[in-house]
Amino acid sequence: MNSEFWYLIVGAILAVAGGWISDEIRAWRERERELKSIKIAIGDELGEIKTTISNMHEVWKQAKVLSPSYITNLLANTTAFDNLRTRLFLIKDENLRKRVVAFYKKLKDTGKNSKGKIGTLANTDEAKAEQGQFDTEFQTLCTEAEAIKKSIEK
Amino acid sequence: MSIRPKVIARIQTDLSGRFRVVDNTGTDKKIIAGQFPDVILFKKDPPLDDDALFVMKVENGGELVDSLPLWKELGNAPSIFYIVVPEKKLDEAKKLADATGIKAKFAWYEVLDGEVTNINYE
Predict the structure, then answer these.
(1) Phi, psi at residue A77, to the nearest 5°?
(2) A100-144 pLDDT tens trace
(3) Is A21 part of any domain?
(4) pTM value?
(5) Chain A residues close to B82, C-beta within 8 Å
(6) Does residue A13 sit within a domain?
(7) How many domains is chain A built from?
């Protein structure tokens, strides 16, 4: 009677523990899957951003003109980040997480600051310098996008 | 001869080194934002593409207010929109654009003895 009672208790404990472990494994696998999809989505988006900035730079090199349509595309290219922002904590590397957030903030700030100023036919030194400055800022972002993409896809 | 073709010819002379300049006032017109700009500047090839970098509407001495609906549409196009006006109409054009919330940049041309002597771009 006494031993049967303890078998019952041990059995119950094992059942509860088994259920808990099973739930934990399932949750862990879901987090891993989600983390993978976050990395893919952000990595792909960074790739698109890099391509857009490279195209913008090509036009700049050729015609010394920055086109605002590229800025529109860049600002539209933050959807993955905006949608996944609250789940970024799944990226365990704190430094990488901060770099991603800082990158998107800088991209949006630079895009907004350049709106209305980018793209001119003025042939003055002042206008060329201003446009060149924007190109440099976006080139810096392009380099950063590539570096983060590599880190995130490791 | 109206001043508009002369302004367009001057734009072509000034900018054809940097862009593929299309006079859009002929028969084979391109539509941008549902409108027909007078001049379209494309990236010079290679690579050839149809992404207009700049679109322009050249105004002569007529009433600028008549062009407002067209300005509004072209101002919403993804390309940079330039309104090209005679120098003496520049202030009026800027005030009209400001008052109606039209997104545009301005260029103004100088005329001497019926010839376009210079075009300035902001």
Answers:
(1) -90, 35
(2) 999 999 999 999 888 878 889 988 888 889 999 999 999 999 999
(3) no
(4) 0.78
(5) 121
(6) no
(7) 1
